[in-house]
Design goal:
mainly alpha, 6 helices, globular
């Protein structure tokens, strides 16, 4: 399910690349949260996870420099992010089982906040 705030602030984007990244990130979040709740650990979900991770891993280098200024100010589990939340989440190659992904769940908000801050800073979203 798309994040409502991210959807709102990305509605004026002209480039397809950020929209593609956002859609994949929404999918990653959905799968991880469903897995955490015990609702998404079927073979199909595992295959979707691998596809999403592969596609995001290929796209992320094009966004890393734009996202990097924003993630150090985010929190992971109530503590300032000490590392790149995107890189951490993209290293999870297999969909975690319930109870195995608490650190990933704590990292999701930091990545989403950095993504939203990057989108707000894009020229299409500047109010002048």
């Amino acid at each position: 399910m798309p994040n409502p705030f991210t959807r709102f602030i990305s509605q004026n984007l002209k480039s397809r690349r950020p929209k593609q990244f956002i859609a994949l990130w929404d999918e990653l979040e959905y799968l991880l949260i469903a897995s955490h709740r015990g609702l998404g650990n079927s073979p199909g979900d595992a295959a979707r996870w691998r596809t999403v991770i592969t596609r995001l891993t290929n796209l992320y280098p094009g966004f890393k420099n734009s996202l990097q200024p924003y993630w150090p100010d985010t929190l992971i589990g109530g503590v300032p992010a000490a590392g790149d939340p995107f890189e951490f989440l993209l290293t999870i190659r297999e969909l975690p089982s319930p109870g195995e992904n608490w650190r990933a769940m704590q990292t999701l908000p930091a990545a989403r906040e950095a993504l939203n801050r990057m989108l707000l800073a894009m020229p299409e979203n500047r109010v002048e």
